[in-house]
Design goal:
Order of helices and strands: HHH
Radius of gyration: 18 Å
Structural class: mainly alpha
Shape: elongated
Number of helices: 3
Strand content: under 5%
Largest sheet: none
Distance between the termini: 43 Å
Length: about 80
């Protein structure tokens, strides 16, 4: 019975990771749609910058932000 505890923990951890990923992507998409058209109205109007981004683009932006945060944290702690 002691060896089967991970059968309950692993799905819970995976579910938590999936929920965090969805929330992060929603935040990235919302922040993009909220700030970018105000910051770059001319570029959005001409089509140089997207008014909204796709889920895949939000995922890429989130990965980019995480890498930058990791680099900044590594430099600060070292």
């Amino acid at each position: 019975m002691k060896k089967t505890w991970w059968l309950a923990v692993v799905p819970g951890v995976l579910g938590l990771i999936a929920m965090v990923l969805v929330v992060v992507l929603l935040v990235v998409k919302a922040l993009w749609a909220w700030t970018v058209p105000d910051l770059f109205p001319g570029a959005v109007k001409v089509g140089l910058v997207a008014r909204e981004i796709s889920w895949l683009a939000a995922f890429k932006v989130a990965i980019f932000a995480a890498v930058l945060a990791g680099i900044a944290g590594a430099r600060r702690s070292g």
